[in-house]
Design goal:
By secondary structure, the chain is an alpha+beta fold. It has a domain of 52 residues. 22% of the residues lie in helices and 22% in strands. It contains two helices and four strands. A two-stranded parallel ribbon has the order 1-4. Strand 2 and strand 3 form a beta hairpin.
Length: 79
């Protein structure tokens, strides 16, 4: 598996896998718009807004947790 991911030991395996699966680097993965299963911690609903990636390293998205759920293919809410 490591060979399939071109893992050379210089970056963490999570970083390499994240980049291969999403096409984005750690810290810039967008909160919406990815065609991947989505998991939400129910504690996020305690906040009026949460902040996360947009796909650009220099931009952050402010979003209501309910809107985040509605815009993604949520498979699990845990917590």
């Amino acid at each position: 598996m490591l060979r399939l991911l071109n893992y050379n030991g210089q970056k963490s395996l999570i970083t390499v896998t994240l980049s291969k699966v999403t096409g984005f680097e750690v810290g810039s993965v967008p909160l919406v718009g990815l065609n991947l299963p989505f998991v939400i911690d129910k504690n996020l609903y305690h906040y009026p807004f949460i902040y996360g990636g947009t796909g650009e390293r220099t931009c952050t998205l402010k979003i209501n947790p309910q809107a985040l759920e509605e815009l993604n293919s949520v498979k699990l809410i845990f917590g």
